[in-house]
Write a structure and sequence with these properties.
The complex is a heterodimer of chains A (about 900) and B (about 120). With about 900 residues, chain A is α+β, with helices and mostly antiparallel strands. Chain A contains 28 helices and 21 strands. Chain B is of the alpha+beta class and about 120 residues long. In chain B, helix 1 packs across helix 3. The chains are: A alpha+beta (about 900), B alpha+beta (about 120).
Chain lengths: ~900, ~120
């Protein structure tokens, strides 16, 4: 009751702004007058009597504040906040260093955490995702299964609500004169029911749709594909489209949040698995040995544990092994969450992200340490102000609170800047599709978790670096400071602080070295010899199977394609190759010397890359023939088998490059092949590989339905894409084509190097930021501590150089020491980098000069403000004031 | 510079109430003198801390204040106990005596008393 009344009075006072300042002032005056009179009566002189009275009364200002606090709901916090804002505005350099440092550190944490949140912490968008498990088979924990095995597991298990399965493939889809290739998930009939997904439009598949092979020509579109290719048209339900030249009916659209069960994979539509033959060109529904079903998963039944489910699956597995010893010999099961395809993708992703998170956390901690030093330097600078406030009766608590408010303010502003920057970056990251041909990207949306974490980090770091100067202030003795000035002892001994700073500088130099090495490697890779010439060449990927071609039709159609595209104006030559070199899907085959009789893989003379090419390929690709001839159109099925091999192949199998023409070797199936030409050495699987053997076979002797068409033009290859597309459409309107310039396609092999450059660059920037704040803090601290000494030196006639040396010598010594250590580490680290980056070596004058330049620039940047301050010392003013 | 603690502030409030109860309406200085006389050095250093306590009691309704004339004929604020305040004093006196008695017994207790 009492406190309620007090509360209301205070609220009323606050709202009405009623203050009793005047009353308190009058009361204090009266109080002191009475006490003075009392003292005078006791025999003191009037002046001394009043002094004693005031001493006895206590610190007027602090009593007034207590009185105010008592009177209304006025928060001293607001006062602190206003004061802090004023103080920070007065020192923009200090404030911006703090804000930028924290923005980068907290931004980095927010980005890494967003990705982690999206990939690992966020469950799949299906009901009861936490009970959904994928079946991993055998010692390798493989996720793929055969269809008959899947059926047995589905029908005989007693621990899963439903077992569903899917496989992913590419198919041509034509909804009327516009054939494109699309990514398809082949799903079992119970897929949507088992995952408990509801349709957005129309209906989804049900087990009742399946009645054996090729009986369910239905399509369910993903919401994204419906949006981009059917313009949100609700009339698509019931529409018939051609998939690989087979009529399929669109029955529905999946909900927007559902895109299959892999978090990073975004298929275009779903088709029943029983129609495998129409999609993949083969029917392996009854083949127990062919494990083509990409993934099998299901919800555990209510109350069933993982161990029980595994035991159940293993007993079925043991039975299968007994019945089909040849096909099913390794049937031990484990369970894994399906969103990252079990441990295959999940374990490295988790390890990588956890590593990044730890790194980001360390960066934040280091940033806090540096800012702590910076705040300590400032507290030292302000020791006179603080002493004055203490002397005037301010409590230490109050001063600390105000300093903490300052620190928190800096950290919250920094955190806000950091999170806004990271939101923009994360948005870009979500749109980014690193591999143009694959529907793989990260869908990252910062949510409340991310914002909450960033805010928490900002507040926590504010407290951490705000706490560094606490001891300094608690120890401050106002009497001593005002008497003697702010001079403190600054011994020459190496402190923990120095070691920390050297470590940061070394890491920064290491990162700068590594990123420069990576950049140089990237530049070199782009200009190295690939064994072909990507400039002025365009690639067109065509899979004739998608357009409904079979067997003998395929080479005939391919020859027609070559002829018509070759007739486009500006085209110099056209060739076919499968697969395109340096593309993800490289194929190798063991090869044997001509006198080998036992053709087991262990006896192979070499493992050679295998390419199937047309006669014109070498000219179109720009691959030089060192000797011999290319293929002709007469090297067909009826002619003797021939091959062109590369220099390394010739060296390895025949011992010499020039003498290899006319020699024979054998393939694993025993075919004797005559070498008719030697091609120059190239790169086949990665840019950093050593010389590898490769062989080229004529496509008329080894046909394949999928081919890459290499079109070399005299002019701009950008313009060529539409012309090729139109020409091929005239040839067959139902042909899905993927066209890309070869230079653009080189992004794939360069991906790892680019990522290395990018991530090292980002890390290098972080390291640079830490170095700058670290050195800045240290230099500012040492200048402010020695300001008086510097003033005296100047007064005694010291030159600018000497002043700078006295003020910043130590900072530069640490910088030089740290940089040298970092450079040495960088030289060691580039051995590791050599796995990713082409010819990575730091023994490169440009790299060395670059590191020295970068570190000097960082040092200059960091010491600029303290140096200016040291130089602008006015001895007169300083000696008067201190 | 000793900070006033919660206990100190609580006892200070109780002393103010008791002083006003015994001596009738008084101004701030008078209360401070009385407390000083009785409690010794409690208010020897920071007499000013009395004023926020007075304000708190007034806002709680335990005391009321009005302007009057002091001994040397200057305007001074006089505080007097209200009916609520008198009740509060009774309750708190009882509480205090009870607490003091318990603590006192506790301190007097010897080891053999507990066995």
């Amino acid at each position: 009751m009492r406190s309620l009344r007090r509360f209301f009075t205070r609220v009323v006072n606050t709202v009405t702004g009623r203050v009793h300042d005047e009353r308190l002032r009058e009361e204090i005056e009266e109080h002191i007058a009475l006490e003075t009179a009392e003292n005078v009566r006791a025999g003191l002189a009037p002046v001394e009597a009043r002094r004693q009275a005031m001493l006895k009364f206590g610190a007027v200002q602090s009593i007034k504040e207590d009185y105010h606090a008592e009177q209304g709901m006025q928060f001293i916090f607001m006062q602190d906040l206003r004061f802090s804002l004023r103080v920070l505005r007065k020192s923009p350099g200090f404030t911006s260093v703090g804000v930028i440092t924290l923005a980068l550190a907290i931004g980095a944490n927010a980005i890494v955490f967003s990705v982690m949140n999206a990939l690992i912490l966020h469950p799949l968008n299906v009901p009861q995702a936490e009970r959904l498990y994928q079946l991993m088979r055998g010692k390798d924990k493989a996720g793929n299964h055969s269809y008959p095995d899947y059926l047995d597991l589905r029908d005989r298990n007693r621990t899963f609500d439903e077992l569903v399965a899917y496989d992913a493939t590419v198919a041509g889809i034509d909804s009327g004169g516009n054939p494109t290739s699309a990514w398809v998930e082949l799903v079992t009939g119970n897929y949507f029911d088992g995952l408990r997904v509801q349709p957005y439009l129309g209906r989804l598949f049900h087990p009742s749709d399946e009645h054996g092979a090729n009986t369910a020509p239905y399509i369910v579109l993903t919401h994204a594909y419906w949006h981009s290719h059917f313009h949100d048209d609700p009339g698509v339900v019931g529409q018939v489209v051609q998939v690989n030249k087979n009529p399929f009916t669109i029955v529905g659209v999946a909900p927007p949040e559902f895109h299959g069960t892999l978090v990073f994979f975004f298929p275009d539509f779903f088709v029943p698995m029983v129609n495998q033959e129409q999609l993949e060109g083969k029917n392996t529904l009854n083949d127990r040995g062919k494990r083509w079903v990409f993934s099998v998963m299901g919800h555990l039944k209510e109350g069933v544990t993982g161990e029980q489910a595994i035991a159940d699956l293993n007993s079925i597995g043991a039975d299968l092994k007994k019945n089909y010893p040849k096909e099913d010999n390794d049937m031990i099961f484990t369970l894994a969450p399906p969103s990252l395809y079990g441990d295959r993708v999940g374990a490295p992703t988790k390890a990588f992200l956890t590593g990044l998170m730890v790194l980001a956390g360390l960066i934040l901690l280091a940033a806090c340490a540096n800012l702590g030093i910076l705040f300590a330097a400032r507290a030292a600078d302000r020791s006179r102000e603080i002493s004055l406030r203490l002397a005037l009766g301010s409590s230490r608590k109050r001063i600390l609170r105000q300093l903490f408010t300052e620190a928190t303010l800096v950290s919250v502003i920094g955190g806000a800047v950091g999170i806004s920057g990271s939101v923009l970056l994360v948005r870009a990251l979500s749109l980014w599709q690193p591999f143009t041909k694959y529907p793989i990207h990260l869908q990252v949306k910062p949510d409340a978790n991310v914002y909450g974490l960033a805010l928490l980090m900002a507040l926590a770091s504010g407290f951490i670096f705000g706490a560094v100067p606490v001891r300094q202030i608690l120890r401050a003795n106002p009497y001593e400071v005002i008497k003697a000035g702010s001079g403190g002892k600054d011994g020459p001994r190496l402190t923990l602080r120095d070691l920390l700073l050297v470590a940061q500088i070394a890491i920064c130099a290491l990162l700068v070295t590594s990123s420069l090495v990576a950049v140089r490697g990237l530049v070199r890779s782009m200009h190295s010899n690939f064994g072909f010439e990507p400039q002025n060449a365009t690639l067109a990927d065509i899979d004739l199977r998608m357009a409904g071609y079979h067997d003998d039709q395929i080479p005939a159609m391919q020859k027609r394609m070559l002829d018509t595209v070759g007739a486009i104006p500006g085209v110099e030559s056209v060739g076919l190759v499968n697969p395109a070199p340096l593309y993800a899907g490289s194929v190798t085959s063991p090869v044997f010397t001509d006198n080998s009789a036992d053709l087991r893989p262990a006896n192979a003379a070499a493992q050679a890359f295998l390419y199937k090419v047309s006669p014109e390929y070498f000219r179109a690709a720009g691959t030089a023939l060192l000797s011999g001839r290319s293929f002709t159109w007469h090297d067909d099925k009826d002619a003797p088998r021939v091959a062109v091999v590369n220099a390394e192949f010739a060296r390895r199998i025949f011992g010499s490059v020039t003498g290899a023409v006319g020699e024979y070797y054998k393939l694993p199936d025993g075919t004797r092949i005559e070498v008719v030409g030697i091609a120059e050495q190239g790169k086949y699987s990665s840019l950093t590989e050593d010389a590898k053997p490769a062989m080229f076979l004529p496509f008329l002797q080894s046909p394949s339905s999928e081919t890459w068409m290499v079109v070399r033009s005299s002019g701009d290859s950008q313009q060529l894409g539409p012309a090729i597309r139109n020409t091929l459409r005239d040839l067959d309107a139902g042909l899905p084509v993927y066209i890309q310039t070869w230079t653009k396609e080189m992004d794939h092999p360069l991906f790892a190097t680019r990522m290395a450059v990018l991530s090292l660059g980002v890390l290098g920037m972080m390291g640079g930021m830490l170095t700058v704040t670290g050195i800045f803090g240290m230099a500012a601290y040492s200048v402010s501590k020695r300001l008086r000494e510097l003033g005296i030196r100047m007064a005694l006639g010291a030159q600018r150089k000497e002043v700078l040396q006295a003020a910043l010598g130590r900072a530069f010594k640490l910088l030089a020491f740290g940089s040298a250590a970092g450079l040495l580490l960088g030289i060691l680290a580039s051995r590791v980098l050599a796995f990713i980056v082409y010819q990575a070596t730091p023994r490169d004058p440009l790299v060395l000069a670059g590191v020295v330049l970068a570190m000097s620039l960082l040092g200059l940047l960091a010491t600029w403000i303290p140096a200016q301050r040291a130089l602008s010392v006015d001895p007169l003013r300083l000696l008067r004031e201190e | 510079m000793k900070q006033k603690t919660g206990v100190l502030q609580g006892t200070l409030a109780l002393m103010v109430l008791k002083t006003l109860d015994v001596l009738g309406p008084l101004h701030g200085y008078g209360i401070a003198r009385r407390i000083e006389q009785i409690s010794g050095d409690l208010l020897a250093v920071n007499q000013g801390t009395l004023y926020p306590v007075l304000l708190k009691l007034e806002q709680e309704g335990a005391i009321a204040s009005e302007w009057g004339a002091s001994e040397n004929n200057r305007r001074a604020r006089f505080y007097r106990l209200t009916r609520d305040g008198r009740k509060q004093l009774q309750v708190e006196t009882q509480d205090w005596q009870q607490t003091a008695a318990i603590i006192g017994r506790f301190f007097e207790a010897k080891a053999e008393d507990l066995s």
